[in-house]
Amino acid sequence: MSSTPRDPTPSTSGHNHRSAPDAIPSTSGRTRPARPSSPASGSKRARSPAEDLRPSQAQKLNDHQGRARAKDYDSMTQEIVSTAVTYFRCLLATEDAFPDHTSETHLLTLAWTMARQEHKLAMDMTPDIAKLITSRTSQMRGELKTKVRALVELTFGFESGQNKRNVRKNRQLAEDLKEGMGYAYKTSPSKADSRKGLYKAPLIQKSLNVMWFANRRSEGATHPEMFGPILRKPTLALVLTAIECGIDEWATGIKADVPFTSADYRSVYIDHIKAMSDFETRSAPRDILGNILTRLHNIGRFHSGAQPLVATAPATSLSTSAIDAAIREYDEDEETVTEGELGEASE
Questions:
Q1: Is the pLDDT score of 114 beyond 70?
Q2: Bridge partners, residue 335, by sequence
Q3: What is the DSSP string of 21-44?
Q4: What is the DSSP code (8-state) at residue 253?
Q5: Which of the residues 204, 248, 306, 323 could staple to 221 if both were Cys, CB 3.0 to 4.6 A apart?
Q6: pLDDT tens digit sequence for 129-163
Q7: Which residue, among 294, 279, 265, has the nearest Cα to 198 in the 3D structure?
Q8: DSSP code of 214?
Q9: Is the N-terminal amide bond of 229 cis, ω within 30° of 0?
Q10: Looking at residue 307, what is its pLDDT?
Q11: Which residues contact 282 (CB under 8 A, 6 or more apart)?
Q12: Where do the segments described as Disordered lie (predicted)?
């Protein structure tokens, strides 16, 4: 298997993000038009994707004070906004879940461009629509935290209540799990050097499944071009960061809400990406991380009930050298020259 594509640490410049792919399948069955190749000399100028878009303008039906709402717009605008929101959420999950203003603007522009091309509409993004879409940044993280915190409690055995024994147990458990990223291992005894299965903790797969692969309509299943065929390192880093936040809620021994904010957890998120990159580099000859990420995606996709991604079959063809070798063999083998002349069956 080829090595895992490197995922750059989220940057403030926004230049390290992936560009939009040429053709992006969608849940609606529409597909973004591929970028046209350069026309041959003397031929008609190729049309750009923008030239294939129908001019359109967002129509706001309800103008009111307060936060913008999708239902304030006409149905066509609601549809393109809904598509842009989905792309934006996917980009957050796979590119940068804790973006600064520059990075968030980059992801927003990319998501809106994808939505415009999918719907073939040249609609400008208004400031209100931009706010409506970017409000999903904290919403997506909050949704993940809510789903993961319940799994953390059940998986590790934290116990509610203010019983002194439970409080001591919870506090010690939280410390042990955070020591050396114990929560990321398949087996996590108290001694760090005895742990096995880095990035193979069952909780990681469960978190991915519940957030992005719950069913065939989930974002991970409907957007394999972003989540697969190899899970992105930022996605795994986001899950690990959410798990750590869930453990932090038990740090005092008594469960307390801990906001999953950029101010508190962006540095943790970046540290996870760096740790994965170091692990990837050290284990490159065996592509261990690539295998782990591929397995996480494949199991998630299977859990969703979506069809497995089919690799492109190699073309059935013969190389020039293979054809030349077959001709030489025929010429040099006397039996093949007369074989079949008398209607004899070859053995």
A1: yes
A2: none
A3: PS--B-TTS-BPPPPPPPPPTTSP
A4: S
A5: 306
A6: 899 899 889 999 999 999 999 999 999 999 988 89
A7: 279
A8: S
A9: yes
A10: 87
A11: none
A12: 1-74
| Cα-to-chain-centroid distance, residue 242 | 16
Please name which of 137, 50, 33, 32 lies closest in space to residue 88, comparing C-alpha atoms. 137
Q: Please, is 127 exposed, middle or buried when counting C-beta atoms within 10 Å of its C-beta (0-12, 13-18, 19+)? A: exposed
Amino acid making up residue 162 = Q
User: Under a CB-based contact definition with an 8 Å cutoff, are residues 102 and 14 in contact?
Assistant: yes
Which pLDDT belongs to residue 119? 86
Q: Does residue 341 carry a pLDDT above 50? A: no
- Retrieve residue 243's tokens: 């798990």
Instruction: Choose among 128, 84, 134: nearest CA to 105.
Output: 134
User: Which ranges of 157-223 would DSSP assign to H, the alpha helix?
Assistant: 164-178, 202-212, 219-222
Q: Is pLDDT at 253 greater than 70 in this prediction?
A: yes
Output the average pLDDT for the chain: 79
Q: How do 54-56 and 196-198 pair as beta strands?
A: unpaired
Q: How many CB atoms lie within 10 A of CB 177?
A: 24
DSSP assignment of 68-83, as one string?
A: --GGGB-HHHHHHHHH
Judge whether 266 and 98 are in contact, CB under 8 Å.
yes
